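ESCALATION

Customer reports they have been waiting on this structure for their group meeting. Please prioritize. Original submission:
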Amino acid sequence: MRLSGENSVGYRGLRRFFTAHSSAIGASPTGLRVIAIFEASKGLLVLVVGLELLALIHRGVQNLGEEIVERFHLNLAHRHPRILLYALTHLDNSHFRLLAIAAVLYSTVRFIEAYGLWRLRNWAEWFAILSGGVYLPLELYELIKHATVVKALVLIVNSGIVAYLVYFRWRKK
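Update from on-call: job pushed to the front of the queue and completed.
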């Protein structure tokens, strides 16, 4: 490969190519990589929770719920500790396996999305827009129904990610 001359693909040719196409690329891929790390982190968190659910099969789940209530000094007269204990007493091994399988599937989807975003794949950008955008109406409904700071933060972060991805795709064209 020659590095000089009009017809060769050399330094000047590569520079011209990247200069001409840099405006078409739009925002830097750093944002996509940050989103990829975020999605991979969500996948890892859900995978760990799913594996812990499988580990709970061999332990007394109701005993674990009672330990949680005791450790955090929760009042059984309140709603949330009762819901926790009720849910734990009505879960059996098949429910735990189903939840663990769902966690593995969800985390697999997040890992695939993160891989595609990290590698700057077009399909991953569209997939991330769709998979993030599908939750927005539900998150908005939940925020309107019963507003909390956590629900507002989730909606803001998810909306920001989807908006950035749409902007990134729009700038590419």
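Sent to customer with the following note: Residues 1-8, 21-26 have pLDDT under 50 and may be disordered.
Escalation resolved.
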